[in-house]
């Protein structure tokens, strides 16, 4: 008998994956967590029936959420990830010569599952520059002023404990927690299915930060494939950042040319932002 996992990508759209094995399944304090082994995409992390990452395409999302803000800043020493308990974003950050990389994940079970099933990503937790905190990122960030050079919000969709990660009050706390040249990035979902959210978050960031910019990447297993990120920057104009000519580590999606190009957004997204 064939085993399939289906994600409701919207109320009316389903994406299905042929599954070889269910490797793990549990109900944590915060969400349902599963690790599946799929035919096409390899191991997959699923939270509340939503695909968080697959081993075949995780590099696209993780490289783009990490390298774009870090190279935009230029010389980050202290970086914070909120969410991201799989370790993928942290793993990319640690390819830069940062002094400290902190991660605040609300659900320790995500970290445990990653250590067991995604060793290629969770290897980041063992880096001496990494520090992991298991608590709500919303409360965590309130305790810091002028502290982090880059803050990355690598969250689940805006439901459950992640709702507050898409609110203006949280973005204000992030602004305060950043140093004077600070750069902030959040994943902001699909422009097809989350049009309203994209516009709302963009407007908040544009009100709080001197510079706000949307960038995109194509992630095959995320709803709609075309994915958005919003950057808020205190000093560096994201469109004029001094992006290095080349990377001194290996990447599979990110390149300096992609960095410059990713801020060139399609007309329909510009339309959403200007409505
Ligand atoms: N790349 C993924 C995506 O876009 O689907 C997100 C991956 S990562 C697994 C998201 C993490 O955010 C989850 O492990 C979840 O537990 C965590 N999270 C949700 N709300 C949070 C909060 N308020 N504070 C800290 N972490 C939170």
UniProtKB/TrEMBL annotation:
<dbReference type="InterPro" id="IPR030374">
    <property type="entry name" value="PABS"/>
</dbReference>
<comment type="function">
    <text>Catalyzes the irreversible transfer of a propylamine group from the amino donor S-adenosylmethioninamine (decarboxy-AdoMet) to putrescine (1,4-diaminobutane) to yield spermidine.</text>
</comment>
<comment type="pathway">
    <text>Amine and polyamine biosynthesis; spermidine biosynthesis; spermidine from putrescine: step 1/1.</text>
</comment>
<keyword id="KW-0620">Polyamine biosynthesis</keyword>
<feature type="binding site">
    <location>
        <position position="86"/>
    </location>
    <ligand>
        <name>spermidine</name>
    </ligand>
</feature>
<dbReference type="InterPro" id="IPR029063">
    <property type="entry name" value="SAM-dependent_MTases_sf"/>
</dbReference>
<dbReference type="Pfam" id="PF01564">
    <property type="entry name" value="Spermine_synth"/>
</dbReference>
<comment type="subunit">
    <text>Homodimer or homotetramer.</text>
</comment>
<comment type="similarity">
    <text>Belongs to the spermidine/spermine synthase family.</text>
</comment>
<keyword id="KW-0745">Spermidine biosynthesis</keyword>
<feature type="domain" description="PABS">
    <location>
        <begin position="2"/>
        <end position="234"/>
    </location>
</feature>
<feature type="binding site">
    <location>
        <begin position="136"/>
        <end position="137"/>
    </location>
    <ligand>
        <name>S-methyl-5'-thioadenosine</name>
    </ligand>
</feature>
<feature type="active site" description="Proton acceptor">
    <location>
        <position position="154"/>
    </location>
</feature>
<dbReference type="InterPro" id="IPR037163">
    <property type="entry name" value="Spermidine_synt_N_sf"/>
</dbReference>
<feature type="binding site">
    <location>
        <position position="31"/>
    </location>
    <ligand>
        <name>S-methyl-5'-thioadenosine</name>
    </ligand>
</feature>
<feature type="binding site">
    <location>
        <begin position="154"/>
        <end position="157"/>
    </location>
    <ligand>
        <name>spermidine</name>
    </ligand>
</feature>
<dbReference type="InterPro" id="IPR001045">
    <property type="entry name" value="Spermi_synthase"/>
</dbReference>
<feature type="binding site">
    <location>
        <position position="62"/>
    </location>
    <ligand>
        <name>spermidine</name>
    </ligand>
</feature>
<dbReference type="InterPro" id="IPR030373">
    <property type="entry name" value="PABS_CS"/>
</dbReference>
<keyword id="KW-0808">Transferase</keyword>
<dbReference type="InterPro" id="IPR035246">
    <property type="entry name" value="Spermidine_synt_N"/>
</dbReference>
<feature type="binding site">
    <location>
        <position position="161"/>
    </location>
    <ligand>
        <name>S-methyl-5'-thioadenosine</name>
    </ligand>
</feature>
<feature type="binding site">
    <location>
        <position position="105"/>
    </location>
    <ligand>
        <name>S-methyl-5'-thioadenosine</name>
    </ligand>
</feature>
<dbReference type="GO" id="GO:0004766">
    <property type="term" value="F:spermidine synthase activity"/>
</dbReference>
<dbReference type="Pfam" id="PF17284">
    <property type="entry name" value="Spermine_synt_N"/>
</dbReference>
<dbReference type="GO" id="GO:0008295">
    <property type="term" value="P:spermidine biosynthetic process"/>
</dbReference>
<protein>
    <recommendedName>
        <fullName>Polyamine aminopropyltransferase</fullName>
        <ecNumber>2.5.1.16</ecNumber>
    </recommendedName>
</protein>
<dbReference type="GO" id="GO:0005829">
    <property type="term" value="C:cytosol"/>
</dbReference>
């Amino acid at each position: 008998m064939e085993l399939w996992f289906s994600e409701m990508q919207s109320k009316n759209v389903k994406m299905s994956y042929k599954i070889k094995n269910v490797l793990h399944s549990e109900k944590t304090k915060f969400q349902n967590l599963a690790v599946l082994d799929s035919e096409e995409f390899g191991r997959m992390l699923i939270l509340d029936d939503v695909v968080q990452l697959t081993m075949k395409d995780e590099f696209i999302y993780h490289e783009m959420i990490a390298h774009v803000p870090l190279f935009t800043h230029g010389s980050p020493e202290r970086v914070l990830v909120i969410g991201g308990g799989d370790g993928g974003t942290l793993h990319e950050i640690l390819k830069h010569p940062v002094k400290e990389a902190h991660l605040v994940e609300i659900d320790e079970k995500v970290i445990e599952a990653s250590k067991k099933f995604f060793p290629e990503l969770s290897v980041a937790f063992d880096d001496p520059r990494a520090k992991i905190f298991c608590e709500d990122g919303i409360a965590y960030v309130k305790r810091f002023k002028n502290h982090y050079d880059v803050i990355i919000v690598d969250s689940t969709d805006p439901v459950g404990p992640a709702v507050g990660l898409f609110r203006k009050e949280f973005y204000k706390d992030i602004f305060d927690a950043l140093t004077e040249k600070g750069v902030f990035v959040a994943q902001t979902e699909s422009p097809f299915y989350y049009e309203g959210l994209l516009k709302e978050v963009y407007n908040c960031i544009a009100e709080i930060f001197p510079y706000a910019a949307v960038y995109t990447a194509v992630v095959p297993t995320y709803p709609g494939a075309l994915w958005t990120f919003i950057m808020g920057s205190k000093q560096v104009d994201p469109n004029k950042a001094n992006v290095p000519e080349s990377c001194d580590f290996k990447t599979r999606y990110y390149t300096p040319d992609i960095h410059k190009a990713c801020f060139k957004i399609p007309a329909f997204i510009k339309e959403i932002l200007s409505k």
